[in-house]
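pasting input
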Amino acid sequence: MDKVTNIRIAGLGGMGVLKASLILSELLFEEGYDVKKAEVHGMSQRGGSISSDVRFGKKVVSPMIGSGKIDFLLSLEPEWSDVHKNSLARGGVVISPADFDVSKLKSAKSINVAALGVLSRHLDIPEGRWLETIAKFFPEKLREANAEAFMLGRNS
Amino acid sequence: MPKFEKKLLSGNEAVALAAFHSGCALGVGYPGTPSTEILENFSLLGGNAEWAPNEKVAAEVALGAAFADAASLATMKHVGFNVAQDLFFTASYSGVQGAFVAVVADDPGMASSQNEQDTRSLAYAGGLPVLEPSDSQEAYDFTRLAFRLSRRWGIPFILRTTTRIAHSNTPVEYDLDSLEPLHSAKYQKDISTHVMVPGHAKPSHLRLRRKLAEILKWNESDESPNMVVEGKSSELGIIASGVAFQHAMEAAPDAGFFKVALSHPLPVNKISEFSKRYKRCVVIEEGDPYMTTLLLAAGANVEPRDEVWRFGEFNSDRAKAQIDGATDYSEPAVKSKPPQLCKGCPHVYSFKPLVDLNCIVSGDIGCYTLAAMKPVSGMDLQICMGASIGMGLGLRKVLPESEARRVVSVIGDSTFMHSGLTGLLEMVYNPPPTGHVVVVLDNSTTAMTGQQEHPGTGRKLDHSPAPHTVSIADVAKAIGVQNVEFFNPVRDAEKITEYLREKLATNELTLIILKQPCLLAAANLAKMKA
């Protein structure tokens, strides 16, 4: 637990980058980790490139991931977000929509949550805790679709 | 018994919670990235929060409340602080009876701003004390502290945040048993401190400097919130404030640290003593070399800062490069997709007639500023809130007639409320010989910052109905603009082009309102109603 784990979620404005990082950081916080999440709002919400850093461990200092330190890159729009591969740590993992069958998603808006599903295979947190936390961030009518999206990624 | 609660909060959420816990009676501001969510969260917590037409009015309202012994909060982005500066530079003289905290959010690196000015330099000039949190916990703690210190010394306090404080989420722990009640307001007449005529302002200036000297003494003492961590060796000492402290800690965990919390008035003696315990000391700060300059002047053992560190946002790589003495640092260029107007956005339609008529467009601040870029390419000038009208008039007054007739000022509805009115007064008072045309892009919201309300939307900060809806058309007519006309930018393209062509050929004053709601705001409002 001493080592800080660095996760970057990247994509375009409107794809749910910020929502995914909010779900992830809240879950890690509730699991007892020190967590820091950094992002930039504003102009980025107009469909431009956007990324959010989530860092967790026993003690996190800077909220931003240093270059060459990304352990997990969730690249939601590879054409634009694969550029962050340059900053992967040795052995760093890239997660992208190619990791699951996007056509099985009820809505393309759930790509962010499906990517969290893929990420969940790498983190030692019970499946139920993921699903509980995801449910908290969506209104009733979207919960089932997002739970399914998460499981699609997790079982891919 | 303390009753602790712990949450993961953004800096803005932490400030809002702290203001609520400090018994803040009123929060007033104008939306501006990255400060906007403070008042929205303060309102959600149950606080009394308002959007003012602009930052100067917000600060005026907050100061009035603090004159009446209440605790008040004003929020704004760094450039909004400029708008309010006329008030702040004298509110430091007058002081307050209650508590007045202004949160000013800087945007180093300009993620969503037109400049990267440093609030500390302005606060120094205005004689206003500054606290700088380095994470959400401190955003909470220092906001609470700012309210206490403002009341203790009777002076407005500035809380300077930056993008990575405002919009980063980090854990915050607070004691629910430490909450302060609302202070009941009371008025006490005292023209010697509340009426700043020269005869009162002269002793008030002396009083301000005495207060700052007392605050400095406190800041040099062990009571201050500054923090010293001695290093593993005496090789390297680092002086840092704000989020730059976190980046420096990441870059050089074994160094000695003087973490500055209250950066104006800066505890130069204490930092000098610290600096002399180390072979070399580096000051890591985002923005101006504010601390560096003061420390060098005081003879502290700190290295001068290379100009390269003035530009952009810090991170741990930059902090390391500065510590290592680099002078030619540049971030690797990252391919990124620029922001753009939403698909179907009314602004895209609004600029077409202006482009077709080859207009010189004096523009303003908002989503529509994106229209300056490809593919719309419909804007020529943009400097600050409200400047479109004045700059357009200036162009018209000096350009040869054929060129002057091409000039149009374009401004959004929220920006018009913020600072377009005075430009309109100038237009009717000193009209250019060729007249002028102002186009208001009315999407009935403050779209850029996330669809906030303003005096023209008919709704208050919490989206409940406002007692009155200001009509831009009625205001323009009352001020004396000759022609005021409405069009729908999406449906009336040809009519708009025709009307524009006609009015640009006259010497009359014309205001055209292109009204069509922002797509995002309309969707959000529908959601709220449901």
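fyi Chain B touches chain A through 37 residues (CB under 8 Å).
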